[in-house]
Amino acid sequence: MKGSLQVFKKYSPLLYDLTSRDVKIKYRRSVLGLAWSILNPLLMMIVLTTVFGHLLKVDMTTLNFPVYFIIGNTMFSFFSEATTGAMTSVIYGGSLIKKVYIPKYIFPLEKCLFSLVNLLFSMIAVVIVMLFRQVTPSWTMLLFFVPILYCFVFAVGVSLILSALTVYFRDLMHLWSILLTVWMYLTPIIYPMSLIEDATGLSGQILRTVIQINPLYYFVDYFRSVLMFGTVPGLQQNLICFGFGAVFLIIGALVFKKLQNRFILHI
């Protein structure tokens, strides 16, 4: 552990440089630059609020749908962007890996940090919508970083698994995009959880079970609790969020460590 921390400390400047490079490349020659990190969730919120809010006949006043949606979508978008970018990070970092020694986990970790930077900029859009919709400020908003940290750890664990497997199975890139779409609809982002709770029959029971084992449901719900509802999730939800993050981080580290020695033969 001590040796691993020393190696990480040694290469932390490289991690910073890679993250800075990705931020600069993403917004290079863009007139609005980083403002797109704010405009993108705002535009998405406006479109989906108009479409799904009316199609699902959601009570916009009671639920405060625009705030409900943008908070959930911001968290899910972070996870989606982090894992999708991390999948090919080792492959695209092959030129560096072949030339010099670099801890290979630096590449998926950097993509997660890059997505975290984008998330922090997206929080400005969240604040704008909350102000516009007159959400009452609460001290619990200061805890916004807690669910983000839980989700970040979870995303790193999943990213380590995906980045290692994608080196050997390139089709995983296409499968993951499909899985993310399904995952989004199985997370209460564009619909209230009450729709699932009120569902009857076998299909309703299956949906409730799937959502209950969905890690992103707990991260999103935690995020909404502290930002929107002014409540602090209890010990059980904190343990669930921590458990998902810790378990996937450990599994991801073990999978990545086991497979990384043969990366050079496949990139």
Automatic annotation (TrEMBL):
Alphabetized GO MF terms: ABC-type transporter activity
GO aspect biological process, one term: lipopolysaccharide transport
InterPro entries in the record: ABC2_TM (IPR013525), ABC2_TM_bact-type (IPR047817), ABC_2_transport (IPR000412)
Domain ABC transmembrane type-2, first and last residues per copy: 32-259
One GO CC term on file: ATP-binding cassette (ABC) transporter complex
PROSITE patterns in UniProt: ABC_TM2 (PS51012)
Pfam family, one: ABC2_membrane
Location of this chain's protein in the cell: Cell inner membrane; Cell membrane
Sequence intervals crossing the membrane: 31-55, 67-92, 113-132, 144-168, 175-193, 235-256
Membrane topology of the entry: Multi-pass membrane protein
Keywords: Cell inner membrane, Cell membrane, Membrane, Transmembrane, Transmembrane helix, Transport
Family membership noted in the UniProt record: Belongs to the ABC-2 integral membrane protein family.
Protein name, as recorded: Transport permease protein
Species for this entry: [Clostridium] methylpentosum DSM 5476
